[in-house]
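Protein modeling request. Please complete all fields; requests missing the sequence field cannot be processed.
Requester role: graduate student
Desired output: 3D structure, token encoding
Chains: 1
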Amino acid sequence: MKNSKNAARIEMMQQRREARSVAECFPEVAGIVISMTYNQKGIKPIFRAFNFSPSSYAFFKVNCLSKDCVDGGFDLTQIIATMARSRREMANGALGCIGNVPSAKHSDIIYEVAIQYTQ
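Delivered output (119 residues):
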């Protein structure tokens, strides 16, 4: 289990390093802010915010809080791509972990995405 979790972590880090910049993927975007609240049974909700500038990696995957989760987490890539295509400034919703370990106590998130565009 530990080896598969390490392999998944290394793979995610590699994907991030290989991601293009926000400016390359979304030239009209000046900035992106993702605010989210993690919820997991038995743990107090945790708030996090991520800020992306044009030079940031266009990598919008976030890990699950469960220590037993492998290949899970939350992928906001499609949400952000759809928003950028339609020049939408705000979106919010909820996502469950996409992990594949049934025994893990996966978390879920409530998110809000704000995108600022260049003139």
